[in-house]
UniProtKB/TrEMBL annotation:
InterPro entries: 4Fe4S_Fe-S-bd, DPD_II, FAD/NAD-bd_sf, FAD/NAD-binding_dom, Glut_synth_ssu1, Glutamate_Synthase, Helical_ferredxn. This is Glutamate synthase (NADH) small subunit. Transmembrane segments: none annotated. It comes from Pseudarthrobacter equi. The keyword Iron applies. The keyword Iron-sulfur applies. It comes from the Bacteria. Residues 38-69 form the 4Fe-4S ferredoxin-type domain. It holds the Pfam family Pyr_redox_2.
């Protein structure tokens, strides 16, 4: 490394500054500000010459983290983005949205705060875009093979870009009016402004990837038609079926799935006119679920001017430090304060929701009780019931799998018991030439896993079409074995 004693000289971990809460809740711009160059270099210089960089195994993409940390410390930004792009198609997305399992695996994290890997990553790509270092990489020749990618989230776009660059003619199908999937309409702008999606799409278009928006595969065009028209099909539709909560009062007006709130809100920020938009202004909001989607609802409700926001989680509050059963270098479950939590609202743990109450068909409150553990089960404790006033409830309880979309009926691809599209060790379904990547086959997961699966599935598709491949395959479709491509 450039500074082998950097981690001894700079012991303090400094992350990106966030805009002041009273300012940022008045708009939808990104919360984070750029870090001062000298501070950033000092943080990158904390990366150790540790011999075995466990950050590699923590990152599903196998990012070359020590290399681009070193190049950032040396102020060699153009070389740094080359190393970063070698393993990650979209570092501007992971640098903003990934929870950074690489940092949990950082060797320095054994006895000091980990290196700010995610922060260095996003600074590299932002500098690269600002300086014109991100250019199209069209193929040198075309193979004559065609591929349809269904779904334009990170998995689908990663697969499409990889396959385009090796010479296949790729068309991406998206049922929405714009490309991006949940990156476009699920992630609020205060976490990632949509410029980060648009300028990457411009690169992909210049490379030759084709986009077909407003096409719902399975109805507007059948999977059979795609299979006949293309040499291979990649299912990358995500895991978009929300987990419901079938308890008394579920049908009251005011109880909504989280995405039914976030998607119209994002469209409104983009300048669209939304009829009957769910709006939190002046209302008491309760969010069920303490994950990222719940935090997105929380930040959105703040910007809508909610009267109050309460987040309920059925389990215990996670610890602030690693628990004994989650030792380094595993990815621990920790109590985190996202930017939305800084902005206000109440977080309540060990809260079991047992019903919704209302008048004249409209929600007025949420009936909860303390959670107790009986024989390993989480149950509401008798005698602890209370009602929290609520005008809106957002169910942010995760997702149960991919939408059926006539996949089984039209191409005989099967689903497993967890609601995911089944696949073999080469990402192929039981129908030859039909592959699946990302959350549609893995289940709800991280954006970094989606990109890794998109890249690996692209390698499998390329090998299927050409007999061999030069594309890297960073991950296998299961944790049991690595597919040899």
């Amino acid at each position: 490394m450039a500074d082998p004693r950097g981690f001894l000289k700079v012991r303090q971990r400094e992350t990106q500054p966030r805009r002041p809460v009273p300012v940022r809740i008045m708009d939808w711009k990104e919360v984070y500000e750029a870090q001062e160059k000298g501070t950033l270099k000092a943080q990158a210089g904390r990366c150790m010459d540790c011999g075995v960089p466990f950050c590699h195994q923590g990152c599903p993409l196998g990012n070359l983290i020590p290399e681009w940390n070193d190049l950032t410390w040396r102020d060699k930004g153009e070389e740094a983005i080359e190393r970063l792009h070698a393993t990650n198609n979209f570092p501007e997305w992971t640098g903003r949205l990934c929870p950074a399992p690489c940092e949990a695996s950082c060797v320095l994290g054994i006895n000091q705060p980990a290196v700010t890997i995610k922060q260095v990553e996003v600074s590299i790509i932002d500098e690269a875009f600002d300086n014109g270092w991100v250019n199209p990489l069209p193929p040198h020749r075309l193979t004559g093979k065609t591929v349809a990618v269904v779904g334009s989230g990170p998995a689908g776009l990663a697969a499409a870009q990889q396959l385009t660059r090796v010479g296949h003619t790729v068309a991406v199908y998206e049922r929405d009016d714009k490309i991006g999937g949940l990156l476009r309409y699920g992630i609020p702008d205060f976490k990632m402004e949509k410029e980060q999606v648009d300028r990457r799409l411009e690169q992909m278009k210049a490379e030759g990837t084709r986009f077909r928006t407003g096409v719902a595969v399975g109805t507007d065009v059948t999977w059979e038609q795609l299979r006949r028209r293309y040499d291979a099909v990649v299912i990358a539709t995500g895991a978009t079926v929300p987990r419901d909560l079938p308890i008394p009062g579920r049908d009251l007006d005011g109880v909504h799935f989280a995405m039914d709130y976030l998607v119209p809100a994002n469209r409104a920020v983009a300048g669209e006119s939304i009829e009957n938009q769910i709006h939190a202004q002046g209302k008491h909001v309760v969010i069920l679920g303490g994950g990222d989607t719940g935090a997105d609802c929380l930040g959105t409700a703040h910007r809508h001017g909610a009267a109050s926001v309460t987040t309920l989680a059925i389990g215990k509050q996670p610890p602030a430090e690693r628990a004994g059963h989650q030792p380094w270098p595993t990815f621990p479950t920790l109590f985190e304060v996202a930017s939305a939590h800084e902005e206000g609202g109440e977080r309540t743990y060990l809260a079991s929701t047992i019903g919704f109450v209302g008048e004249n068909g409209k929600l007025t409150g949420v009936k909860v009780a303390e959670t107790e553990f009986v024989d390993g089960k989480r149950l509401p404790k008798a005698g602890t019931e209370r009602v929290i006033p609520a005008d809106l409830v957002f169910l942010s309880l995760g997702f149960t799998g991919a939408e059926p979309a006539n996949i089984t009926e039209q191409v005989k691809a099967e689903f497993d018991g967890r609601g995911n599209v089944s696949r073999d060790g080469y990402y192929m379904t039981n129908t030859e030439g039909v592959f699946v990547a990302g959350d549609a086959g893995r289940g709800q997961s991280l954006i970094v896993w989606a990109i890794a699966e998109g890249r690996a599935a692209a390698a499998a598709v390329d090998k299927y079409l050409m007999g061999s491949t030069i594309l890297p395959a960073p991950v296998a479709p299961t944790d049991r074995a690595i597919a040899v491509l």
